[in-house]
Known about the structure:
It is built from 8 helices and 2 strands. The protein is mainly alpha-helical. The chain has one domain. Helix 5 (47-68) packs across helix 6 (70-91), helix 5 (47-68) packs parallel to helix 7 (101-114) and helix 6 (70-91) packs across helix 7. The radius of gyration is 16 Å and the shape is elongated. The model has no long low-confidence stretch (mean pLDDT 87).
Amino acid sequence: MAMVANGVHFLNPEGETLVRWGANFKPATLDGQWWRLLTNCFIHIGILHLLLNMYALMYIGSLLEPYLGKARFLTSYLLTGIAASITSLWWHDLTISAGASGAIFGMYGLFLAMLTTDLIEKEARKPLLTSIGIFVGYNLLYGLKGALIMQPI
């Protein structure tokens, strides 16, 4: 809401604007702006991106938070978001990354790992694995489409 109130387009924000708001961008992040590793987890590339991430986080949160509790869930979210941001830096030279997708995928990965243990009742594991597998598979395929690439500022 703050971004839109300050003139950022709510459907298709420009790359330079995302960088100004704290998106992860390798040249800026590695030039001492390490805070981007975290801030980019809270900036989204348009309202549709935000709504889809909110839905995904709501779904995994409703499944995972009862097992972890609020503090461990938040800590896991932040750590997986930072890990995803670091991975993005390693993987992409000039891609602007923003959004909670990396952190959310980390939470799905954590839940998938928990499904391989006795922490979750055996009867519940198969339907949860199927549901999460479909979600993760779809999002991985969707994520393979083009990335937003920007020239250095």
